[in-house]
Amino acid sequence: MLQSTAWGRRVPEWVRKIWREVAAFGVVGALAFVVETASFNLLIFGSSASGGGPLGSAPVLASVVATLLAMAVSWFGNRYWTYRDRRGGTQRGELIWFLAINLAGMAVTAVPIFVAHQLLGLDSPLSDNVARLVGWAAATVLRFVAYRTLVFSHPGKDSAHVPGTVDRWTTTLRGAWRRGELWPWCLAAIATVCGLAVNTAFHPGYLSADSVDQLMQALGDRPVTDWHPPVMALLWRILIDSTGAISAMAALQTAVLWATLWVLARLLWKKTGSRALSLATLAVGLAPHILTFTGVVWKDVHMAYALLAVLAVALTARELPAGRTKTRWALLVLGVLFLAYAILVRKNGFPAVIPVFMLLVMAVWPSPGRRRWLAATGVLLAVTAVGSVGVSAATTPVATRQYAQIPLDDLTHVLTPKQVRAAAERAGASADFRDRLVTTTMECQRRHIPADVYFNCYPRDLSLGPTELGRNADVLVSMWTHEMPKHWKGYAAYRGQVFAKLLFQGNLAFYDGSVTKIAPLKDAPVSEPLKYTLQSYVTGFTRDLPMLFEGWFWLALSLVLVLRRRWVGPYTRELRLLGASTVLYILAYVPTAPQSNFRYVYWPALSGTIAVVLIAAGYVARRRAKAAEAAEAAHETDSRPAVPPVVASSPDTSATGPHESVTAAR
Fold first, then answer.
1. Is 564 helix (H, G, I), strand (E, B) or coil?
2. Which alpha helices (H) appear in 244-369, and where do they start and end?
3. Is 104 a residue whose pLDDT tops 80?
4. Could you give the CA distance from residue 366 to residue 163 in angstroms, rounded to a whole number?
């Protein structure tokens, strides 16, 4: 007993205090676990074995309620017992940190399970329990460290000083937090958690009919065609071969979005010093008009995220110090790779790429000369050409001449059936194709089909696959060339009608991936509760703020960005070029829009939202600059040496001699 007491005296005070906190923290955690488990079972099953609980039909809500009760127990237990001598004066700030850390802890707990299922392919009960145990242990360590250093980090009046390593470590961590050195890492953690949550909600990825076709091509079940971008099929094939999971494509595009948002949030944090603004940058990924397609495998989404990544690369290059030539060239090449992918993945995205390319070049070199412009343009053209040739060599896509859809739409909506037959005869169309064109025209006029004739009205021969329309592409182009100039008023009216519908009657704001009932996805179905939650979130904003999902709003915002001569802050050039990219991209749909669909304006919605964040950053940066100037002026005033006051005095006669005094007296 005496030896034990003597040993206890030799143990440093901070070690004894740490162990007391560990013990108290463990007791509170165990109590919270019991409360969560008991309350969940009571809500689901009730107090008796035969009776059902009040939330028996809503297990998700029951889990949320049980988790909140456990968090309340943990909050009061740790605040008033474990860290009773470290309570800060502002309970609201502690509570905010407590909630944030517990949300991060839940995400940390889910990460090992996600890795075990999605990356390692382990789904046995043993692996699930081991993964959950690993996640629980990591989350427990995270909570203990964060509670001590961030939540309950202010010692109370009656708390004793804790010397030693822990005190120095805590002081260093607290100082780094106050200086903002830890905030970029906090942003990275938040972006990671959000990305994992979004990827889980969309798992294994929502697929449209186009996506299913490309998945079949990536798996080798269908031949690769150029109807959809072969580069996506090739990328998907590489991801499947590398990971063995078809969900890798949706996970990749989600990762690109959140990594890009983190880079932008970090840059704006350094520029403005505003934590709220950096969090608002990350919140763009959770905005309903952005989140709605984050996990939908579509070429429009890939193009939008590639262009956003170029913006992040450009703003990174802009902040580089003078010199750093190699780094600038490396960033230029990285941005060009994203631009080339955007061109290859969306053919009509080239007009949107041009202003973003200009933004990239002028960020890498603030005043690029002619030679640098030519060099950068040459790099872009070379990378795009090499990429196109490489993709074609790797996939050998079947030519479909998809562009024939556009003259087919115009001819069947501008001409009458009689005029269509006559034009087809003059163009040398076969009798069968002439009859199909006339039937298509009559069917579309009868059913009032506004666009997308090939899929809605044309009597297709399914045995020919996607190459059917391409067989008659030359005939359709010849008919269009001869007839549209003669019927230009009807052509202008029709194209104006389709474009106006695209701008003002946007549809498909949320795509639920309902066509995913195919063999490769039977083992990884979409979660119906999560899909319902996402749909409710998005459609609620569609009802309350419909302009977020309509092209006219983003076109108007882009015109404002372009036409305003000067914006507050340092991002005037970036804002105008982003606006130009959106305007060119939307106007490119005037002669080509097949139908009204929100995905066609997804890039304008994303760029417009980021532009609003940059505008806010400009105002915050100006306010910060004014505050710095005022502080500097006040410092100069305080440090300026005081000037002694001038005091009026009588002439000094002390230096006069006797002779001068006598003279003065006379």
1. coil
2. 248-272, 275-283, 288-291, 299-318, 325-345, 350-364
3. no
4. 52
